[in-house]
Amino acid sequence: MKRFDLRHLKNDFYDRMLDLLDKQIRDGETAIIIFEIGDFENIQKSADVIYEAGYTLMNSIKFTEVDWTLVIKKVKPEPKVVEEENK
To answer: What is the model's pTM?
Structure first.
């Protein structure tokens, strides 16, 4: 397990997060990413970016008043379940 502090990047941490996951984390290994919340859209966007990149978001937690923590495992995520409306 490795921990990466990306708070200094403010709202521009996505590319660096993916770079670290690609190059610094082995398959099956877990990473902890901490970033500054800034805009709350970053929380949902980070989850979407992680899923689209093919990683599994294990946990997403508010760390302090201004920081957020992601626990990411380098394994393929389960497919999203799409519910159909009953007609």
So the answer is: 0.86
